[in-house]
TrEMBL record:
Top-rank taxon: Bacteria
Organism ancestry: Bacteria, Bacillati, Bacillota, Bacilli, Bacillales
Alphabetical list of SUPFAM superfamilies matching this protein: C-terminal domain of transcriptional repressors
UniProt feature coiled coil, ranges: none
Ferrous iron transporter FeoA-like domain ranges (all copies): 6-79
Protein known as: Ferrous iron transport protein A
Keyword Iron in annotation: yes
Length: 80
């Protein structure tokens, strides 16, 4: 099965992917995400998308958190 990469925002709820790259994000926010375990090579699951362009809910290392769609679009994931 071929692997493809896309923006985290393009995943469907319930989909899982490995973070390939995080680019263009504010360094402070990137550090906060790293403190939650979000970094390159980590598996992440998209749990849901808020209505009306609301936040994106993610699960990483057993933790649930939400980020803005703008930041989710800056995270590239590899999906199978």
């Amino acid at each position: 099965m071929a692997l493809s990469s896309c923006s985290l925002l393009r995943l469907q709820p319930g989909s899982t992917g490995s973070i390939q790259r995080i680019e263009g994000m504010d360094p402070i926010l990137r550090r906060r995400l790293a403190d939650l375990g979000v970094s390159e090579g980590v598996m992440i699951r998209l749990k849901g998308k808020g209505p009306f362009m609301g936040p994106v809910t993610l699960e990483c290392n057993g933790q649930l958190f939400a980020i803005r769609r703008k930041e989710a679009s800056m995270i590239e994931v590899k999906v199978s």
